[in-house]
């Protein structure tokens, strides 16, 4: 697993090559504020090869935060991450590895009949009760998440996943009440607390698409304070000395800045509604930004008035540095299936991000 000594040692090997705030505290050590995402791409050998080369190159160049999920590219992304970790000359203890469970994964390729596959491999086997399924493809029931965690550990070939996220729990709001979703999260958190005690995960988190950045009353809304409260109850029930909920993941970029602009979560000190980023800072949660480049759209379409405030030689670097500048963001993930893009993305970290006042000024 990633350790304090391993990650700080990784940071030190680069000396002054990066800007002062490039490495930031995460878990027991530090992580690069540019991370590698593995969502995009078809489930093919060609894309596997691209990711393998990208991850190996990134680890050598200064990115030590790699993010994946069991459903990404039909489990192929997890497996490629595992192969890359094994082949890399960078020690495992220097790398933060994150994965997610929630969406039902296919195995290697998309089946001709996805519904039949789900029925055969998840329902008929008893791994899932039909009532636990949402949108035909999603579940966060404790036994299911625990089974997916075991599968992810195997795919990655690691003893410990440093941060394991419950993936898009707001999907469950399509079939059950908000309170029922909180109840299910609490039960799953308790299982994850026990797996943390066993050393299978370093911490756990919640990865979302809409839940934490939409206003109250939105159909996908989940309350961060309530999620934290449920994690505290789960930790107590599991007999943990501390709470294992350590991070949230959500989209954040120039075009999707809701996590900074939408105030929908009661501040832990005074109860005033604040943004997800502000709440996370106050609650001591790390924030990992996804969709940093909006799947490539921001490499050429940053609004000029914002672009002018950002540092970087290319539009992609400036978009990355926008996400890295947001108060509370630890790492901005960049999907990099092509090794040709790795040097450019890594070099974004040689520029200082905007200061807090300058970042606020972008929204004035």
Automatic annotation (TrEMBL):
Residues 35-211 form the NADP-dependent oxidoreductase domain. GO terms for molecular function: oxidoreductase activity. Transmembrane segments: none annotated. One of its GO terms (cellular component) is cytosol. This is Predicted oxidoreductase.
